[in-house]
Amino acid sequence: MSSVDSMLSIIMVNLLSWPSWISKTYISPALLGLLQCLFDKVSIEVLVSGFTSPAFWPRTGVLQGSILSPFLYSIYINSLPALLRSVRLPISARYYSSNPQREFDGLWLNCLLYADDVVLIGAPEVMPRLLKAAEEHSFSLGYRWNPAKCVVLNSALSLGGPQLKLYGDNIPIQSTFNYLGVPFDDTGTIATGLLIQRNVTSAVSAMRRFLLPVGIRSPGFSRLTATRLYTIFIRPRFEYGLCICTFLQKQLALLDRAQDQCLRLAFGGHPRASTTVFKHLTSTPSMHVRAHTLVLKMIIRVHHLPDDCLLAKLVPFVAAAPIKNRFRWPALLRQNPLWSNLQYTGGYASVDDRLAHLSTDAHVKQSVLAYRNDLLHRILNRPDPPSHPSMAYGVAPCSSYRL
């Protein structure tokens, strides 16, 4: 957000057993019964070569990486946001002319939580109080934050502000930070360039480490199968986080070049081999088309969120804010051709009519296909349309005539 003055990420490092905190937080009887069936009196036996070990009873609770972990952690620290919102904001001429209004459904947004990943948002003079509240919450429930994994963005230390501490330990200061896998800069804005560069490195490395060793170039895999393997296992690494980003043309070109590199690795082409025919035969869209498609699906999903979701509450405020605030949501709507161009939304201008038209996957695919066809027609209708690669080589006049 543009109003971010300071940002902190805190990550829990210890796994906790649920019975110790079940009495301190709200949990429905049905969920409690389900947890008891999953974790009470559970025994494990190891079977090796037909021999069974004696039964033993694990005491670790929910294993790290379990799909239940984020959900249970959300319940575990569900009382933290209310405690942080109760922190009094000072009336100071330096930072505030008046007490900030509660903009979003009567609440102050000074924290973001997803499972055990927490962000605190506040002015430099407020942040120590928020950290103190987080410490008190950890003491009340018996867990501990890890100061070494915390990060402060846009610190006021150079301007005479306080050194932020947690349990008496200084919190590191950095200019960027990854939250839920998305890099942010010191203004709280998504660092799109860093995100794309990281995605490109991850995808190309995965292509070399995972698909090449299994023989994706071998005759055992057809070109179509190789492309599908790339689409399933590699392309998602390119696409992570793209649905909430706005792009420069050079950033989209970088994604396209990286995808071409992976496709050359798949069919064994030399470093400068053209991938145009290969992508056409396998109907593989370019990465900039995929980026616009992901943003379109994100726009549709946001409009269908329940009213009590945080993002659904933020959208009206962001849409009504002055353009000088430069929120990302209006830019996503404006820069996405699949949403802003009436040609791809069935000719409908109103938001409700567009959403009704794009409510089915068939209409979304139809819009994307029309956009891809328009891009192809623009290339073919240029004053200097691209020629076939075979025309670059010397051939006999008769062969040239046939081509």
Automatic annotation (TrEMBL):
One Pfam family this sequence matches: RVT_1
Q: Which SUPFAM superfamilies match?
A: DNA/RNA polymerases
Which PROSITE patterns does this UniProt record tie to the protein? RT_POL
- Pinpoint the Reverse transcriptase domain residues: 1-184
Q: According to the lineage, what is the superkingdom?
A: Eukaryota
Protein name (record): Reverse transcriptase domain-containing protein
Question: What species is given as this protein's source?
Answer: Rhizopus oryzae (Mucormycosis agent)
The opening ranks of the lineage are: Eukaryota, Fungi, Fungi incertae sedis, Mucoromycota, Mucoromycotina
